[in-house]
Specification:
0% strand; 269 residues; Farnesyl Diphosphate Synthase; mainly alpha; 69% helix; globular; 14 helices
Length: 269
Amino acid sequence: MAKKHYENFPVASVLLPQELRRPVALIYDFARRADDFADEGDLAPAERLALLDGFRQQLDMIREGFPPSEPLFQELAPMIAARGLPLQPFYDLLSAFSQDVEKKRYADFGEVMDYCRRSANPVGELLLHLFEAATEKNLAWSNAICTSLQLINFLQDIAIDWKKDRVYLPQDEMAKYGIAERQIALGQTLGMWRPFMHFQIERARKLLQAGAPLGKALPGRMGLELRTIIAGGETILRKLHKDSDVFRNRPVLEPIDWPYMLWKAVRAK
């Protein structure tokens, strides 16, 4: 998967059991392609929404028992049936990506959380069903982790999202800290920018920590994979806290980070 997509998730990595790598890759391929419809290229909004609606129609065909016509869905359909995956998370992802086309600002954190519920949490839900571990407690932990990772990505991509005329930072919190959109446009870190970012960082960190028990609850290599993902999120948060100038120093996972992340994942077992 392209680096820009879900970069805090080591997608279908060698840490997963071999039999799960292709199903996981299919789920992420669905999410990546749908996300691209909302984001990539120079399409008009109506064209983007039409492409996303085409994906919905493919899901409808699977739901109604008809063979889908698109190659991706022709591969997804038997996997969904064999693994007993719910279709609603796929629909939720499409809902979030459609919202990206039409909604550019978020009044408060509740609106951001509602977006995360549909843009990030469905991936964790699908993976838990794939792992046959979709208990109520595990789903709650997964939602905390996925929401946190989405929030972390928002913080990483403040400048990138601005170029798409999107601001995922809660408008009321920006006003509280005296952060104007012009400051984002100019890439300025003056005034209360650092305290504002630290508030966002700590909230994401608490969510990540709240979901961390799932890394120990999942067995074997699945648990190791998730603990590595959590360590990746913690690494990005640490970099954000050290330097909140995301306009000039966007934090990413570097090759030098992986030995520490893997060590922490193994140690946390």
